[in-house]
Amino acid sequence: MDTLLHQITERIRAASAACTPLRLRAGGSKDFYGQSLAGELLDLSGLSGILSYEPSELVVTVRAGTPLVELEAALAEQGQCLAFEPPHFAQFGASHAGGTVGGMVAAGLSGPARASVGGVRDYVLGVKLLNGRAELLTFGGQVIKNVAGYDVSRLMVGALGTLGVLTEISLKVLPVAPAEATLMVGNIAQPHALALLQRWGGQPLPLNASCWVHDDSASPAQDTLFVRLRGAAAAVVAACARLLAELQAGGFEATRLDTAQAGADWNACRDQSLPFFQAPSPELGLWRLSLPPAAPALDLPWAQLIEWHGGLRWLWAPLSSQAQLREAAAQVGGTALLFRAPQAGNTGATARFHPLNPVLAQIHQRLQAEFDPAGIFNRGRMYPDAN
Description:
Strand content: 15-25%
Structural class: alpha+beta
CATH topology of the largest domain: Uridine Diphospho-n-acetylenolpyruvylglucosamine Reductase, domain 3
Radius of gyration: 21 Å
CATH architecture of the largest domain: 2-Layer Sandwich
């Protein structure tokens, strides 16, 4: 065990004995995400570096504090990538260096390609972590295989550090797609855009990502759909020709965008640096609605940006709309969470995450009691009443 890991282990052991809450942090790019930032700071940014990388095996193992940009640069040299496009959120971190691999796993957030290639959880092969007893545990491994029983390493995805301190993570990586194209469809209402995406999703098309946005700032207001195709060159070329012909026959304004410019825009969508993600008012919060892709357009009075072929919907709304948004999401089998709180007003009484049903809440509590019996890790980060 190296010196830094030993120091972190001893810090956890002391905190557990004294029941002292610890706030886990590396890049700090997701400090805005979740319920609370209570506890003494435990800086994990020093746990950095790529430990092993086997391009031929499509597997990489890194320390949890490794910056995403460092890992992605190493993968790019070998023509590979993190296919689920994790957000960097550099603009939200104190150092503006962007997210880390550990934060990526802890938050469980994925980018535009999520609906087509899977999310973070689908690419985690194994982890090492320190639990609340300061024990170093290993789950999973470094090979792509079927798992007998439940893969505990995947429990860490989206747990926001409440189950332990991630120290090492093994990930499956994929080759960069040989071809890519982005189509833009102008003046298309949300119901029509969702209908197209649902129809295309059931066809053998290299559909990789989509984004529909309503722009109130334009005069007149504009509704635009962007669709990204990725895959073999022949498949992308054929799909472009087919979709453009279909759209134009349907009376839509459709064009193919410059790939380099479109790539920058997709990255901006991933990192929430598009104009839509700038708060229209300090009293509004950014809400994230996760819905079945086949869910219809929701009758809500706020402008939306829709990703994941209809499965992810963003909007700016006041805290007073909490019940309305969660009811609308629940009616179609989805959830609504307050992703970024308003800059003005008291948010203490607002639960950031969609309430769990009693069965899931009990599972959460039992898992936390097993991994962190003293409740020292990111106390209250997920739910206000969590210890």
